[in-house]
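$ ./design --mode recover --in tokens.txt
reading tokens...
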């Protein structure tokens, strides 16, 4: 029996790292490998979930339907899952077709203070007997008490569990223990955690979550994901093995799919670049990194300043258009300072 359950988001969060260009063979090969490794759930699709493929967020090479059907064909024991943010995805356009494509698990996500927007979607899924998890994103932006209030809403809608996302990779282990522990103490359902690695804390924060009572860890093979990536599942599972924590995963078979499939998918090794590091310090969504870099180059400004300003403004996923505004204003400030030598000294 598992002490904790792993949710594998390699084919979802990992999509961010390759600009949503997963091929059918990528999806099929990884799903086949995850099945062999005994992965209980894999989440498949665009990095921002069902219905999110767009010019603003990134256009997927494959449709949601193509990705889900391709993965479904490789799975027998591993459950097929999908991710949805209300607003990007809808019940009629996205959830119903996903169920028809064989989705058995759904993660419904909202900003950490807006759980109420998930009610219709969660209640629809629960009524259809789909195992449903609530996900609160950008949770470094809310207190433990505020997160509990939002998680209780999701619990009342009928979810199996609630996961806290460290979308910006801004948490330290003490933050994890405080916030995960608060939910564990006060909810009747399972609590999970989704770490990002911008401050190099991905695995440490996953372990902190387990120590605080989390029963679910959501990560990716080889750490493939937005920004500096996610908690690297092979490493986390190996550490769990050392600690006597049962995950039910065949570590060597997961290593095999990491080397044979994920390494070939990656554009470059997952690393903590200066951009990812500043993203974690600023508390900015990890998926903003490519948008911030592109606009910093267009306007000839320091991408680190762009990210810090986004953090000050508390910008969240879905507000990518504001990155252009921030970079443009930094450019104007730069011109003003160069035109006024005294201004540059202030």
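writing sequence...
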């Amino acid at each position: 029996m598992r002490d904790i359950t792993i949710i594998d988001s390699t084919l979802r969060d990992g999509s961010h790292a390759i600009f949503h260009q997963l091929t059918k063979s990528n999806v099929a090969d990884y799903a086949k490998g995850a099945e062999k490794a005994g992965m209980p759930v894999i989440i498949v699709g665009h990095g921002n979930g069902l219905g999110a493929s767009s010019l603003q967020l990134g256009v997927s090479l494959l449709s949601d339907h193509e990705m889900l059907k391709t993965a479904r064909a490789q799975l027998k024991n591993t459950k097929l899952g999908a991710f949805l943010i209300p607003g990007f995805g809808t019940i009629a356009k996205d959830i119903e077709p996903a169920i028809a494509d064989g989705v058995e698990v759904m993660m419904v996500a909202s900003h950490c203070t807006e759980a109420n927007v998930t009610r219709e979607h969660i209640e629809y899924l629960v009524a259809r007997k789909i195992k449903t998890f609530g996900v609160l994103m950008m949770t470094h932006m809310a207190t433990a008490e505020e997160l509990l209030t939002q998680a209780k809403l999701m619990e009342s809608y009928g979810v199996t569990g609630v996961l806290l996302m460290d979308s910006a990779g801004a948490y330290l282990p003490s933050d994890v223990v405080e916030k995960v522990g608060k939910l564990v103490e006060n909810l009747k359902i399972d609590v999970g955690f989704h770490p990002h690695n911008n401050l190099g804390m991905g695995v440490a924060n996953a372990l902190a979550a387990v120590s605080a009572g989390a029963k679910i860890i959501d990560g990716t093979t080889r750490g493939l994901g937005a920004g500096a990536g996610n908690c690297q599942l092979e490493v986390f599972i190996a550490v769990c093995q050392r600690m006597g924590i049962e995950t039910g995963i065949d570590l060597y078979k997961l290593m095999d799919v990491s080397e044979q499939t994920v390494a070939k998918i990656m554009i470059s090794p997952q690393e903590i670049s200066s951009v990812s590091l500043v993203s974690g310090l600023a508390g900015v969504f990890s998926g903003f990194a490519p948008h911030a870099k592109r606009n910093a180059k267009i306007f000839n400004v320091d991408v680190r300043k762009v990210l810090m300003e986004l953090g000050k403004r508390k910008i969240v996923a879905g507000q990518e258009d504001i990155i252009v505004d921030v970079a443009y204003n930094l450019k104007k400030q730069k011109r003003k300072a160069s035109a006024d030598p005294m201004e540059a000294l202030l």
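exit 0
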